[in-house]
Every structure is written in C-alpha cells, then in structure tokens.
Amino acid sequence: MGAHPASSELFNNLNKQLENNNCCEMSSKEKRRRVGILGTGDFARALAKRLFFSGYDVILGSRKPEKKAIYAMDQCLCNVQVLSIEECIKSASIIFLAVHFDNVKELLTEHVVKLEGKIIIDVSNRERPSSVTSNAELVQKMVPGCIVVKAFNVISAYAMENDYNSSSKQVFIASNSENARDVVANIAKDMNFRPVDFGGLFAARRIEKHPLRLFPEWKGPLGFAVCVFIVWLIFLIYIYFIEESVYKWEQLFVKVLNKAFCMTGITTLSVTYLASSFATMVQIYYGTKHIRFSRWLDKWLKNRKQLGLLSFALISIHVIMSVLTMSPTYLSSWYHSTTITIPANLTVPLQLKQTAWMNWKGEAACLVGIIAYVVLSFICATTFPSVTDTLNWREWRFAQSKMGHAALLLSVGHVLVMGIPGWLSKPHLIYKSITFLCLIIPWITLLVKLVFSFPLVDRYVMKLRKGWERREKNCTADCARSVTNEVYASFDMNAGKRKACTDACTCPDDPMPMMNFGSSISIIASGKGQLENIPSL
C-alpha cells in the first residue's frame, strides 16, 4: 500500500528542516566567539565558566600552563584551554586582565607589541580609592597601543559563577573607544548582565570606587538617628533618674530605652516627610522649579528612603519591647486598678481572684498603634525593588505620600491617647511631658502638609512644577550660563552624540545620570538631585 503523496512530502520537509537545524548547530559551534583571560585565579575561573556557558570559546593564559589543571578544579572547565600568556594573547582579540594588579606591570611590559590593537578588559579593583588615577588608566599607559576597557569589577567571583539569574546586576563600562564599549556591552548582555555606559576611561576612577563603598547613603541618616536617640535618652535619664527617682536603674534597659526608641522613631518619621515641604517652600520663595537646592536640602531629599526605613526599624523595636512589657505592673495606667480589703480578725482561709483588664486608654492606644504599624509595614514593603517595579507613578506616590502622612497621623494619635490624660491632670508640667515634646516636629510636619494641601496653594505649586515661573527670566539658578533659553541635555546612547533642545537651564558642573545601552533617553540637567516633580513624601 503506497504512502500518501502529501504525507511523504511533509516527511521530506521535516527531514530537510532537521538537517538544516543540525547544520546551524554545527556552524554555531564552529563560530563560537573567542576571548582570552590572563590569569587562573578564582575570579578568572568564574569568569571563564560564565563566558563558556554564554557561548564563548575561552582560553586561559598562565605563566605555567603545564601546572594548571583547571578541569581538575572544576569539571565545567574541561573544555577551556590553558595556554601560555603569549599564545593566549595571539589567539584572541579580546583579553580579560584577571591577575592581581601588583603583577600587571611585569606581565604587560613583556608583551607590549603583541597587545597592540587588542581590547583589554581590566577587571581589577583597588585597595584604597583614588581620585588621581585608576588601574585602567595605568594599564593604558603601560600598553598605549591597545584599547583598555574598565568593566566587570563590580561583579564578585561568587555572583559570576553561581548567580545566573542576574539580569538586574549592572556592569559599569568605561573606555575611550565607543566601539570597544559596545563590544563589551554585548558581552555583558550575553552573560545576562545589564551594561551601563560611564563614558571615557577617566570614569574608571568612579567605577573602581564603587566596590570600596560601605553604605555611603546610610551614614548621614544613621548618624542623625543616633544623635536624636542620644538626646532623647539623656533627657529621659535626667527626668526619671536625676531630677526625680521615678524608676529603678534596673529598668533602664527595657522600660526607659523603649521610650527612647519610640520618641526617636516618630521624630525620624516626621523628618522624613518634612523634607518635601522644605523643597516646596524653596520653590515658592523663588517662584520657579529651576533652582538648585542647597546641599543640605539636596542630601535630605536623597536620604528620605533611608530615614523612613530607620524609623520603621526603631518603631519595630518599640513594638517588640512594648509587647514584652504589656502588663499592669509596667503599664498601670492602661489597666483597671483593683482594690482588695482584708478583714482584720479573719480566722478562716480567704481566696482572692484578681483579674485586670485594659481600660479605654490602653485599648485605644493599642488599636491606633497597631493600625499605624500595619500601614508603616505596607509602606516599607513598597520600597523593595521587586515591588516598586510593579507600581506606576500614581500608586507609588499614593503609598509614599498619602499613606506615609496617614501613618504619621496615626502615630501622633497613638501618642495623644497616652498623653492627653496626663496633660489634663497636670497642665503646668506639660512642657516636661515626653508625649508632648516628641510631638512638636510631627505636628509641624502635618500642619505644613495641610497648608500645602489647600486647593489654592496646591494649584500654585503644581503650576510651578510644570514649568511656570513667577519672574520672567531665562533661568534663576545661580550657576546658570548666560543662555537665551533653558535647555535639556539629550543623549542618544546608540549614536553617542549630544543634542541640544530647548526648555531647561544647565550648569557646567551638573552630573548626568548614566544610561543603559540600547536606548535613546532625554534627561534633565537641572542640577544635582533636582527632579521635575519632587515626590511629596
């Protein structure tokens, strides 16, 4: 019985497709791009493995290749060749320099001629930051005939070898050759990294400083929180132990410190949301958004996230300590008091059952405090990058501004419930009350926000932030150049050319944010830390 013509034709087509696929696979294997790595250390091996699994033919260069059994250290490197330094340089046009920088000069000076015209990718880091020069610039001086690219130094050997789901990790790239930057950017993309162009090789100084940083954005907020905590703690020790013996010294560790954490937390939280109000005042005063903020205000605006997270941490400590001390002995004003009278001439056994439950003050304080903490927890969750990426601007602003001020208002209510009964009973001592003193800055923050929320004021502020100026001037910034129009700085990362267009004023020393490859983006050059619309946190 003969085969159906249509089915036989389909079978032949499938065979042809399979043959074509096999040919494509063979050709892709034959055309694996070749790169060389000078060095056989931990980072070099991790880099070789990552490059090999990204589709590259990797050659390792060693001074003693016969003694380097790479495959014995890692079976995944069985297809990686280990050759001499000279053979590695000859075999590849792209060379990764993965040796300790102390040995770089000796290594490169022997092969200056052979390295001419090749792309050298410097992955080294410094032990101390330097603003005078960088390792990459020193390599360029050692081998002036090659093209040096600074890249991959911010990726650790562990992340290079194990973290394959790392599309969010950035690779900073700097080189005087735009073509070389594009080549290295494509390599970074193949390795599932996100390349970021830093421009010329002088930017390698900034890139090499990056791994040496230790939470630089947290130093200011943390120092501020510590200072506020110390001030409140000294005040508490004075009123509770020195001026009057209210507590025993053994109660300092939880009872008194709990008050200090609470007062510091609400102070830091209010300062977090007070920054945007100060920025709004500056814009209203100058009648324009095109104004460079003072350095202290600029840093304050940039540190709002850290201040908010610190306040959440302090309030979390306060919550834990409050749960531990939740009893009539510690919080007597929160519970109903029970009076027991025992007859004088009692001759029979007497059993007493004492039950204490919260009064209105205790229950109201707990309710408002719990709601405030839940709202703060939600706001804290929105700061996670994975959550932030799912929010649009309106949602993010609602969480950070509206819910933030709501959490601050609830926190103030929590303190008021505990403080008002004491204020009414002893109004002449209100100036010494910790519940009154710790609410001064929060009240200022909420009142200023309320004023700026009035429709008339809000419309005026939004008018300023849309570009309107009260005074008809080209630019009111002190550092502005004499230009007839305000300008934006537009960068096309593919073409690498700067364009000029109208509508903002630039300052000569204004830093420009770094852009990812493969996108044409316009950025505002209106000064350090300045945004078109300041988030009203």
TrEMBL record:
SUPFAM superfamilies: NAD(P)-binding Rossmann-fold domains. Keywords: Membrane, Oxidoreductase, Transmembrane, Transmembrane helix. GO terms for molecular function: cupric reductase (NADH) activity; ferric-chelate reductase (NADPH) activity. Pfam families: F420_oxidored. One of its GO terms (cellular component) is plasma membrane. The chain crosses the membrane at residues 222-241, 261-286, 307-327, 364-384, 404-424, 436-457. This is Pyrroline-5-carboxylate reductase catalytic N-terminal domain-containing protein. It comes from Dreissena polymorpha (Zebra mussel).
